Fold these 2 entries.
Entry 1:
Amino acid sequence: MAKDWPLWEVFVRGAHGAGHRHVGSLHAPDAEMALKNARDVYTRRNEGVSIWVVPSAAITASAPGDKGPLFDPANSKVYRHPTFYDIPDDVGHM
Amino acid sequence: MAPLFELCLRMGDSTLILGQRLSEWCGHAPVLEEDIALANVALDLIGQTQMWLGLAGEVEGQGRDADALAFRRDAGAFRNLLLVERPNGDFGHTIMRQFLFDAWHLPMLRALAGSSEPRVAAIAQKAEREVAYHLERSAGLVIRLGDGTGESRARMQAALDALWPWAGEMFAGDGVDAALAAGEIAPDPARLRPAWDGTVDAVLAEATLARPAGSFFHRGGRAGRHTEHLGHLLAEMQFLQRAYPGAAW
């Protein structure tokens, strides 16, 4: 049996936030205790109305070394941004 | 002494002493998450103490506020349950003490929320939500540690066996309780026993722990007769106000 508790990623939705935001990680023996620990560690100052916990091991992350191939090609594609349209004055701020 | 004053001391002293005991863990708990959680519970309890002892001073009417009652009374004037002055022991011991207390504290506050004394009802209603979480947390840990490894199970059973004789005091009423019950200010302590038994039995069963058979229990805390441990705790807790009376931020 593993001696250390598994790691969990914590997402909290604030009172005025539309979505859950990643706030950090913590250790807990299981999901239910992870929720309780998240409540104590990350919402002590009334930050949240909803908490998600996800086993850190369940997250598949892109490798920092792949940054170039993954993201650089988007740099030179200005036409992917909607900046070439004339917006009628009536529309106002978009 | 007026029964209402005694009730406020009994509630406020138990939350104060347990809050102080839990604070001893600050920076020492086995994992960071538990360290923060125990400190949160301690702060909840000390916040409740401010309300109970604040009301006690108001009822007494001799100009003593919550701080005066907390920091300038000797052990014999404290009315806390003996259970909460038990030393922390290991982490399992601390969690078991917390669970046995929480399982009583919640039904007690629920009963007090319907008190005929509106100031008591207001405090109880405010504290009840905090304590519902305390119980959820301590029960969850008792279950996981009891139904955990051989080592954790043995420690939890040892803690339960050691603390059991200190739990019965919660349900032993006296003349003050009879007066409070007659005025519908507070429940007869014995009335809380079925709720406590129900919670404790269900959690111990899930934790695979054996409920001790003994029915003997120590009593005296609620009448001001304490174990030697309270004096040591107060010496530390009250040091500053004793050495520098009236010192303020």
Entry 2:
Amino acid sequence: MYEGIVQELIDELGRLPGIGPKSAQRIAFHILQTESVDVTRLAEVLTEVREKVHFCVICGNVTEQEQCSICRDPRRSHATICVVEEAKDVSAVERTREFKGLYHVLGGAISPIDGVGPDDLRIRQLLQRLADGTVTEVIIATDPNLEGEATATYLTRLLVQPGLRVTRLASGLPVGGDLEYADEVTLGRAFEGRRVVEP
Amino acid sequence: MLVRHLSLRDFRNYETAELALEAGPNLFVGSNGQGKTNLVEAIGYLSTLGSHRVSIDHAMIRQAQDSAVIRARVENGEQALLLEVQLNRSSANRAQVNRSAIKPRELPRYFSSVIFAPEDIMLVRGEPSGRRRFIDELLVLRSPRMSGVMADYDRVLKQRNTLLKSARASNVSQLTTLEIWDERLVAFGSEIIAARSSLVAELSPEVSRAYATVAGADHAASLSSYLSIRAKSADDDADLETEAMVGDTIGVDIAAEGFRAALARLRRAELARGVTLAGPHRDDLVLQLNSLPAKGYASHGESWSFALALKLASAEVLRRESIAGDPVLVLDDVFAELDESRRGRLAAAVGGFEQVLITAAVFDDVPTTLAGNVVRIRAGRVLEQGEE
């Protein structure tokens, strides 16, 4: 334990995701030893980011304006929506440069342990976006873990409507890897999900 | 498969130990508390990543030391392997095969052993969880993929139980997702049920044969599965119902169908109690002698024979499937518990395995056929030949 404000700083830092007590302590002492202009800049960015950045009213992505740059972009197709858990997943899909449609950020996945049910996710907003019939395909890109799969199943049931195709991202072996390095769980699942190759 | 050489550093009461082992029987003799079991525990760790005595690794690191090292030269058919694991007090454990690093959890792929210990009697007399662990460990050895299925099942179970509890606290809207968790629970659960039942069906004739061998009398020892999805009542301490006992292999589809029906039947009770009342996590193995449950009816000697039979049968099954040769058998303090005739018969039953490691406090407890390579242990030290 340290005295007063130093300990307070360590406690605050330790509350951040991925930062344990030891890292928090290291960062705190790094801040103490840094030039005060740098620290001021960090503090300013922190306040500014909270003031300026909002969630896009349409898709829930992070943006400094009312709508995010993707939703505002006239070149993007309005016929497909890719549903992801977090805003950071949007930039992951964007990096592929394969997807030209729009996004919808749920804000998490169904997980009773964390107290997250369907009502806590932006599912109602998604249904509203689908109401006018412009969207013909919804790609569900939730994480390939239990909670992500459960959310995908829930959405699939909910989204059954004429003229709408619902797809799910494939999962299995990583591309460019060696079969021998795949762990047995992944490889076992990939065996289960094998498919017939068309000649 | 056999261990040619074992080296230890700061493991339990050994500061260092170097020990050459031979094919066939190896007998470790020493008074109580000198470190016999510690040697075989180290060997067991390489195949199970755990100890048959404690659940935490720290207990195996010598007092006031930060890490312990187990190193074993193993012969795997034609292949020679150097396996090494370092147990660390404050960081993750590390493992190597032939001096290249691997994930510790991959170690069991290179080495398998079956440990017989006095604690095994709890397989017969103890709680269902011990029997589930026994069958699941064997299952994972046969099909590593199952460890992933089991982990997923446990996670779904936790999610579903939380949901049931919160639903009980009146949040009705949460219930719309219950059927999704049901589906996952059934998918993973029925895979576990099917895999366990096929293993039980394979194990049962082996258990019966092994029991007859050890006990010297045929008491029709049998093994079957108790499936909670087929039970009429959800009570924890209900007597085992015969309809829920299954000796044959059950297909995944049949298991899934039964599981779904059970969840539908138990829905109200589950909501009232806020827990999942059927599934592999509430199943059991039923051990019977002459059609009577071993738990409660069998004598101490019979229970012991049954426990040994379970271990012998699992060694037999592993041996049959393995391409790397027999698992190494470890008999830890087992002979002291047996009468003269059972000792002889057990010795004959394990004699056929490539390598058997035996610990005993009293030399004369062990049949002479097993006194091949005798190693004497005193106060955390392996004594030289001829040293007293």
